[in-house]
Structures are given as C-alpha cells and as structure tokens.
Amino acid sequence: MQQIHRHSRMLRVTRGALLLLVIASTVSPALVQAEEWLTSWNDGASRERIVNFVQSVTDPTSRSYVPPAERIAVFDNDGTLWTEQPMYFQLAFILDRVKALAPQHPEWQTQEPFRSVLAGDMAGVAAAGEHGLLELMAATHAGTTSEEFAGIVSDWLASARHPRFQRPYTELTYAPMKELLAYLRANGFKTFIVSGGGIEFMRVFGERVYGIPPEQMVGSSIRTRYELRDGKPVIARLPEIDFIDDQAGKPVGIHKYIGRRPILAFGNSDGDFQMLEYTTSGTGPRLGLILHHDDAEREYAYDRKSSVGRLERGLDEAAQRGWVVVSMKSDWRTVY
Amino acid sequence: MQQIHRHSRMLRVTRGALLLLVIASTVSPALVQAEEWLTSWNDGASRERIVNFVQSVTDPTSRSYVPPAERIAVFDNDGTLWTEQPMYFQLAFILDRVKALAPQHPEWQTQEPFRSVLAGDMAGVAAAGEHGLLELMAATHAGTTSEEFAGIVSDWLASARHPRFQRPYTELTYAPMKELLAYLRANGFKTFIVSGGGIEFMRVFGERVYGIPPEQMVGSSIRTRYELRDGKPVIARLPEIDFIDDQAGKPVGIHKYIGRRPILAFGNSDGDFQMLEYTTSGTGPRLGLILHHDDAEREYAYDRKSSVGRLERGLDEAAQRGWVVVSMKSDWRTVY
Fold first, then answer.
1. Which residues of chain B lie closer than 8 angstroms to A215, CB-CB?
2. pTM score, whole prediction
3. Distance CA B212, CA B78 (A)
4. Do B17 and A11 count as a contact with CB atoms less than 8 A apart?
5. Which of A164, B54, B156, B220 would you call most buried, defined as having the most Cβ atoms within 10 angstroms of its Cβ?
6. So what's the ipTM on this one?
7. By the CB < 8 Å criterion, does B213 face chain A?
8. Is A98 within 8 Å of A140 (Cβ atoms)?
9. CA–CA distance, A211 with A216 (Å, rounded to integer)
C-alpha cells in the first residue's frame, strides 16, 4: 500500500515536471544559450554563423525550423575532432602494433613493409604503397575477435603518447569541437562521426571522449564473420576491406548507416568535400564547415600541400558554396 | 531587457523541472508501469517475463541494472513486427512493381522470371530460383536514386492491399509489438530493427509506423554510389547485393551498424536464431523472445513446415536456452 502511494505521488511529480519541461522547451530556446556552451570559441563570424544556424532550425516560429528527428549533424574525426599530425593516430597504432607483434614474426625482419616499420623507415613504408598498407592493416587489424581488437586498441590508447605533445592521443581532441557537439545535442541534434578511420578503432573511445555512442559512428571497415568458438559466439575480423568511408564514400556511408541527409557537416580536408557537398545541397537550411589548420604554434599549420589532411578544393570553393572556413588560430580561444 | 527577463525566468523554471525529473526518474520506475503500456498483452507468463526483465535492468538498486546507453533492443521485422503471410510484403511489392514496369519491357512477356510474375505463376517464379530472385531485385530495386526509390515504395504502400485482410500493409503491424517498442523506449531502451528485409524499403515506413528512425534500422542492402546528376548529388542504387542481413548475417549486421551486443532480441523464425544466440550469450541480463504464429483465426498458424518464416530450431532449443516463446493466440489480446 505504501508502495502504491509512493508510486502515485511520484507519477504526479513526474508528470508536473514533464509538463514544465515541455512548456519551457517550447517557449524558449534559452535552455541552450550558446554563450554557456561555446566558451572555447572566440566571439567572431564563425561562431555567429553556427549559433544563427542552430537558433533558426530550433525556433518553432522560424521558417527554417527543422524537427528534432531531422537534426542530423556529421563530423569527420581525423583533423576535425582530434589532431591528425604528424600522422593519422590510427597509423601510429598500426606501427606500434607491428612492433608489439614482431617477436612472433621473425620473418618481418626482412619482409616489406614490416622491415621498414621495424626500422622506423617511413619512406620505406610509403614506398610499399597501397598494397603495403593493406598488408599492415591485415596484420594488425584482422585475425582477432572484435572484442579482442577493442581491448588491444584500448590498451594502446592508455599507454601511447603523441610524439610532440607527449600526451595520450585521446587528450588531443579539440575542446571547441567537443563543446560544439554538446551544444548541438542540447539543441536536439543527433551527432554522428563520419570518418575515413576504422569504425571499430573509433568506437573504443568515441563514447567516452565525444559522447558519441558506437551506433552513431560511420567509418571504414573490414569484413567480419559470426562464429562459434568453443560454443561461444564471436565476431571474427577478416583480412578483407568491407567499406572505405572517404571522399565519395562518405555520402554513401551516411546513406547506408544514417539513411537521411544531414543538415550540418563539419570536415577539414578534401576527403570531406563530398560529405559537405551532399549535406549542403539538400533543400532547407544547411550548414557546411571546414576547419582550417593555420595554427603552427598551438597545433599545426597545413592545407594545400600536406600529405595528411590535404585541403585544396575545399578552400577554393568554400566561399561560392557558402561553407564556413573556421580558423583554428583566430576562431578558437583554446585548442585542447 | 524583457527578453532577458523572460529567458532567466524560463531558465529557472527549466532547471527546477529538470531537477524534479531527475529525482523522479532516479527514485521510482513508476513512470513507465507496464500496465499502462502493454494493454494488448494478456496477463500471462510471457508478459511477466518481459516486465520482470525490464524492471530488473532499469532498477538502479538491482544487481541486474544496465545503464541506458547499453539498453539495446533488436527486433526482426517480417513476422515479428508485421505479418509475413501469404508472402513477404516486400515480395508483393516486387511482383506489383514488375507489373507496373511491364509496359516499358515488352521482352518480359517471354523472359523468365518476369513471364511467370506477369502470368501470376508463383511456381514458375519459384522455379527461377535465387538467380531469378536477383534478377527481380535488380529490375525493381536498382536503377533509381534512393530518393526515387523511397517515393516508389511510399506510393505502393499507400495503394497496395493485403490479399486476405484488404488493408494497407502498414496496418498489419502488431499492436502488442508496437506497445512493447514504446514501453522499452519509455524505459530508456534504444530500439532497432534487424531484418532480412531491404533497409531502404523499411526506412520508408519504420519511423511513422514503429517510431524507429532510419538510423536505427539494419537490413539487407544493395550497393549504392554517390553521383552528380545535372550537378545535383544523388545516391544511385546499383544492381549488386551489398549485404544480406539474415541468419549468421544478423549478428554481423548488428555489429556493423550498432557496434555493441543487444540485451534483448525478438524474432520469429530460424532466420533470427543467431541474433538471439548472439544477444543472449553475452554476460549480464539478457532476454530472447520468439513470436510463435499459432493463431490461424486472427492471423496465420505456421512453424516447422512453412516456406515463409520457418521456425524449427528455435522451437526445439528455446526452453534449454531460456528464450520466451510468445504465443500469438494466448499471449495477445489483440493482434493488429
């Protein structure tokens, strides 16, 4: 009886609370004022474009209003949410993994591209080309179960350090971008990662670091197979590429995993060009953003001539396409 | 100034409401009493198993408590969320689509499997085997953009009628299952469809009918390509299978799209066996459910010998695996 009383009292309280919440969120977007959320952004044109966009799509009286279910925002990862220099962090993982596995593979001492990796000869690794990279992928990303692989990545993230900043890679995620993700979510957006990086690599840290759950990640993948091992179901990772989520693959990945066109896309390299093109060519309000790495002091400065995260077409066409070029140097108060 | 006052007042109201909500949801699970949600279920052992499971994983004081982020529930579609007799509804779509396209394809009058489809000769269609089915898929599911395809499916759903019930197919979705989906979501679960059916077919109606958004659907797919047509980005549908989400493909699809193991899985045929096996063999609390079609009067009765939705191994092993076999006849007060 006491139980029932407590329940009915709680129900009344809860319904009142819900009602207040509904009223509050309908009447006023004040709940998620940008000033409280985007504190690592300088007060400039880039931040203003973002805030104006978010306010217009969330204002029920605006002609640009977008229902919450359609507020899909997609973010590249490497160079957009975390640093990608001097090499993609996943490549650093691959190189470290080859070294860790080398004792079990004496043949690697003479066999390329492993020999070059073990000798620290990056030119030799590059010379092995795409075929070499696929061999490295197979040796370091396949042959385990998915659970085992997640454990290996997790252990690596806990111990590896960035060569310049001497910090864990997961600490080299950008504070302004994490604020933006949270600000968008507080405004009813669903945030996704759409990255050329490996989906099972990113899933290990994406929820903890960005608040983006595994089911909201799109990335490159290898094929897997369902197997029983000692009667226990596992997902076995196979040495075959399943999907490359880069360039024209990004809209395909968005369509495959998300199934509707985003209204906001944020990238930093020409690998993101088609994702921005696809996003911003839909009807209704759309926002495309490119992070420009122009801050050698606090991070790195690179664009047209970089082998990692090359940005050329995006810079050339941003103005005519109405995309916002965010300057790390002038738009960000803090980087990490 | 008035603006500021209104904002700060709303903020206070909102914070109060949020606080009440947090208190209420922490103290009491009364918000989502099963009695209010599962009204189309008879008060029997099946419903009790479901309710007990949900209460134990949502009770913060329970040893079985599962954080909301991990409350992933997966549902088969054909025969689990909607009827699948006398043939998969997507097959009815294919047959209707062949008839609609026939005037543009005079060669189909003599060319199998199209000739059999146009003659209403289902034995002839079946005789064309897997190769014939792939030809039908290519002719009816590819060659358009994704947006065009969604429009075609939408138009078909609006006009097609089920041969026995003479109702739109989307009205042949099960009321008890839609209640269960809503009940789970109200308890912090994220609900997904994991179906052998085509993902782009299901995405057309899943949100409206089940409340499941496109990004929470896993299904079979054909390959797509990003293209510019008259300068406009489109997703072109290609006549090649990309992924078959059935049997051992279901855990692979779950891993690929969702990235973590569900804690609840609901199916109805042996095509769902591995999905239930994968789900219920994880550590911690798990629930596997099988819908048994034993109600010829209100729907259909079939299991071991059916060519559609065959259920044999699931029935044989449900008891030993602790899976709940839900009887449509005795557990459901209403079907549609």
1. 72, 190, 192, 215-216, 257-260
2. 0.90
3. 15
4. no
5. B54
6. 0.89
7. yes
8. yes
9. 10
